[in-house]
């Protein structure tokens, strides 16, 4: 854990001052081994989280090995995203590890919760429902980034399904 952070989640990032101009063209290719590994880790993340859910209900504590695994997956995917897709903030190849790497330009840490409320675990997941509804609405509505509706929606064959002159 970062020593001066009062929050349970800490993210510390430093942009590399000497980024190469051409490397962004191939970083996504270099990260393919990470993507395959992260797919497997994300598949494992789901059942581990479900097992942790029942562990918290039963004991009131997050099982430490499951917590470390989940935080490790979050760390790894953050490092790969920082390197290859989202930020392109470093040319340092991300390490293949779930552990914290102090000398890598981005670090993620989560404070281990000593005690958790058994009752809140049953209710907290409901807080994600409004967020999912808004996301679903935005993704499926056809609303563009400019705040307007598209003028024409086309079918996969290229014919116009809906045009401004036709409301249906």
Automatic annotation (TrEMBL):
The chain crosses the membrane at residues 32-57, 125-145. It comes from the Bacteria. Keywords: Membrane, Transmembrane, Transmembrane helix. This is DUF4389 domain-containing protein. It comes from Streptomyces avidinii.
């Amino acid at each position: 854990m970062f020593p001066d952070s009062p929050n349970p989640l800490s993210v510390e990032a430093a942009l590399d001052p000497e980024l190469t101009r051409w490397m962004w063209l191939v970083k996504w290719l270099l990260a393919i081994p990470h993507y395959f590994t992260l797919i497997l880790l994300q598949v494992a993340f789901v059942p581990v989280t479900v097992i942790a859910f029942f562990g918290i209900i039963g004991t009131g504590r997050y099982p430490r090995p499951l917590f470390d695994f989940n935080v490790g997956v979050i760390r790894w995917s953050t490092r790969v995203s920082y390197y290859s897709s989202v930020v392109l903030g470093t040319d340092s190849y991300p390490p293949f590890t779930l552990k914290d790497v102090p000398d890598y330009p981005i670090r993620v840490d989560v404070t281990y919760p000593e005690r958790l409320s058994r009752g809140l675990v049953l209710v907290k997941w409901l807080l994600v429902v409004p967020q999912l509804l808004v996301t679903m609405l935005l993704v499926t509505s056809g609303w563009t980034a400019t705040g307007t509706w598209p003028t024409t929606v086309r079918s996969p064959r290229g014919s116009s399904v809906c045009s401004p002159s036709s409301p249906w």
